[in-house]
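Journal club prep — side note

Before the paper discussion, L.F. wants everyone to see what a predicted structure for a comparable chain looks like in token form. Sequence:
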Amino acid sequence: MPFLYSKEEIIESQISNIEDLIFESEKLKPSDYSEQSWARYQKALNRGIEAMKDSDQDPDKLQEIIREIQIAKENLAKSHSYYREMPYESVARYPEKYKKKEMMVKGYVIQSEDDMLLVATDLLRSYDMDAIEQGGVIYIEIDSKTKKDGRLLKGDEVSIYGTCMGVKSYENHEEHKLTVPSLLANEIVNHSAN
């Protein structure tokens, strides 16, 4: 026979979960996140604080609030000031040192596909061997979580915020194998979009 918890025990456990979520929030710095996502997170936390004070607590309502706080935390978006500019040459030379670090890249799209971009930094606008030999090409991985402004086209000026993945090897259009710094994009801002 399964053990059943009383309503009071369920509420006590949920209040404890809300307290833990509030405690975790105190370790975060608001300046690391976008104002909009931080405001949603604070709103959810405030609902949790109010629910803990409520004398008529409902387990279903408390569970809904716990989930709301968890979702708001998962959806916190890093502010652009949180990211540091990717030191291209250092990443190319010492990729393991930069792996999993939050980085930002500015440049121009030289190749665009659904799941990846090649971006030329240092205002390189053409995709040729001279440009690649000078350095400055970065492989950008895009996934379903990447926030972006519409379709990206060759020549678009972009700022990309994401996580350095070290280096990535790929074949260019001339079937040369190239190894360049790689970034998993969290957000792509298209400065060319109107």
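L.F.'s comment for the group: Confidence is low (pLDDT under 50) at residues 123-134. Keep this in mind when we get to the figures.
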